[in-house]
C-alpha cells in the first residue's frame, strides 16, 4: 500500500495516500498538526519540503510561484495548502515553516 509520510516537530506520521486532497486537509483529517492560516497560498505557514515522491504530486501552482523564491522551489519547498497527490506512490513531506 502506498503511504504518505508527514514529518512534523512532534514526530513522523504515516497516513494513507488520498488523491486530490491538499496536504493540509489530509493532515487535519488525521489530527497531524500542519500549521496553516489562509489556505490560499499567501501566509506560508504551511511551508513544506518534499523529501520523496515529487513526481506523484500536482504541478507547482501559480500561488506557490508567487510566494516561494525560485531557490526554495529548487530545494523542494512547496506549500501544504497547494500540494495534492495526484498519482498513487509513496510521498514523504516535512513541515518546514520559516
Ligand atoms: S495555509 Fe497559507 S499559504 Fe498555505
From TrEMBL:
Pfam families: Fer2
Gene3D superfamilies named among the record's database cross-references: 3.10.20.30
UniProt-listed CDD domains: fer2 (cd00207)
InterPro entries, sorted: 2Fe-2S_ferredoxin-like_sf, 2Fe-2S_ferredoxin-type, 2Fe2S_fd_BS, Beta-grasp_dom_sf
Location of the 2Fe-2S ferredoxin-type domain: 2-98
Signal peptide region: none
Molecular function per GO: 2 iron, 2 sulfur cluster binding
Domain of life: Bacteria
Residue ranges of the TM segments: none
Name of this protein: (2Fe-2S)-binding protein
Amino acid at each position: 500500500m502506498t503511504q504518505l509520510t508527514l514529518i512534523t516537530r512532534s514526530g513522523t506520521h504515516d497516513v494513507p495516500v488520498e488523491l486530490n486532497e491538499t496536504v493540509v486537509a489530509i493532515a487535519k483529517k488525521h489530527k497531524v498538526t500542519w500549521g496553516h492560516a489562509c489556505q490560499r497560498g499567501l501566509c506560508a505557514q504551511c511551508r513544506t519540503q518534499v523529501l520523496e515522491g515529487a513526481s506523484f504530486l500536482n504541478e507547482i501552482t501559480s500561488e506557490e510561484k508567487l510566494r516561494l523564491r525560485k531557490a526554495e522551489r529548487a530545494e523542494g519547498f512547496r506549500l501544504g495548502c497547494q500540494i495534492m497527490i495526484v498519482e498513487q506512490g509513496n510521498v514523504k513531506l516535512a513541515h518546514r515553516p520559516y
